[in-house]
Amino acid sequence: MSKVILSISMSVDGYVAGENITKETPMGEDGERLHDWLFAGKTDADVKISNDTFASTGAVITGWGTYSIAIHDAWGGETPFTSPAFVLCKQMPDQKDIVPGFTFVTDGIESALAQAKRAAGDKDIWVMGGANVAQQYLKAGLLDELHLNIAPVIFTKGRRLFENIGSEHISLEAIRNIHTPAADHIFYRVVK
Fold first, then answer.
1. Each residue of 7-42: pLDDT tens digit?
2. pTM of the full predicted structure?
3. Dihedral through CA 26, CA 21, CA 156, CA 173, nearest 10?
4. Rounded distance between C-alpha atoms, residue 149 and residue 70, angstroms
5. CA angle, corner 137, sides to 70 and 41, nearest 5?
6. Local structure of residue 35 (DSSP, 8 states)
7. Any idea what the Cα angle at residue 110 is, between residues 106 and 113, rounded to 5°?
8. Reduced to 3 DSSP states, what percent helix, strand and coil does the chain have, rounded to the nearest 5?
9. CA count, 13 A, side-chain hemisphere, 95
10. pLDDT by residue (tens digit) across 120-178?
11. Which of 31, 74, 75, 167 is most exposed, with minimal Cβ within 10 Å?
């Protein structure tokens, strides 16, 4: 049975991007350090986590900010995803801003999730990219698991993951913890 999983890299103090996000610095200032486990400092364990994630992915949900800055501008319009990707946005983008492989969803997180589930079949749906999108899915109780890749850095400024998620406690059950020099990978099941 497919699961809805938030997979995100973050600093020890809970930031998923540094401050001053631009197309030149799509992860904010020094934000690329959050992804050293995927690139610069990866170990065999990091590679296995990445490979397992992509192998189980049936669809991806991301936000407009991640799409427009990171994918469209910084990555030159090339999708990094091998599965259908759904972009939450307030309005349909101009034709010139559309990259093949993405479906734009303007009617909310539930609609994006329903479309992603149809596309994913029995594979997992991954919520990747964007603190705001992650916050919406957390607050709505639509996530089954959290996969947090915690980089050994403290940002003190930027975009925090656990803001704007409401005032109710969210209970988690630890599934697995993997330590590498580049990140602590902590996997939780959301207790419903």
1. 999 999 999 999 998 878 888 899 889 989 988 878
2. 0.91
3. -50
4. 19
5. 45
6. G
7. 95
8. 30, 30, 45
9. 0
10. 999 999 998 789 999 999 999 999 999 999 999 999 999 999 998 888 899 999 999 99
11. 167
